[in-house]
Specification:
InterPro entries: DUF4426 (IPR025218). This protein is an alpha+beta fold. Helix content is about 20%, strand content about 50%.
């Protein structure tokens, strides 16, 4: 199994775990934005090394995926121009550098950032899909150091 496949499986597992409790997605004009924020210690060491991701209990990552809605309900991954900004409750902001990762037909956008334990952060996501709408979305997430 390739490292990229392992990362895809990790991210899929993360999406499935979140879906069981509360699916983290938002729908907009025939598309879906799926999002999740986890500690970087959730990434296997070999995968982190391949993608130059620092694994640390004091760092988290955001994973974003955009799907075009389909009649079968599964959706088709689409590439997007996408950006994410992290905001603290006291107004500090940090642009999150996102890397596009492709695994077969899957397309993910992942970025990492430092965290403080039990901090609630806001994430402002802006995206544009080819031949589709521009979209802005914000969501809060509490993060924990490990």
């Amino acid at each position: 199994m390739t490292t990229l496949t392992r990362l895809g499986m990790l991210l899929l597992t993360a999406f499935i775990s979140v879906t069981v409790t509360a699916e983290q997605k938002v729908e907009f004009e025939g598309h879906e934005l799926h999002y999740i924020v986890l500690n970087t210690t959730e990434i296997p060491p070999q995968v982190a090394e391949q993608y130059d991701i620092v694994r640390s209990g004091k760092r988290a990552f955001i994973n974003l995926a955009v799907l075009r809605q389909t009649d079968d309900g599964y959706g088709t991954p689409v590439s997007a121009e996408i950006s994410a900004v992290q905001r603290s409750l006291i107004g500090q902001t940090l642009d999150i550098e996102l890397a596009e990762i492709r695994e077969g037909d899957a397309i993910y956008y992942i970025g990492t950032f430092p965290i403080i334990n039990r901090e609630t952060l806001w994430f402002d996501v802006t995206l544009s899909v080819p031949n589709g709408p521009d979209y802005e979305f914000s969501f809060p997430q509490q993060v924990w150091q490990e």
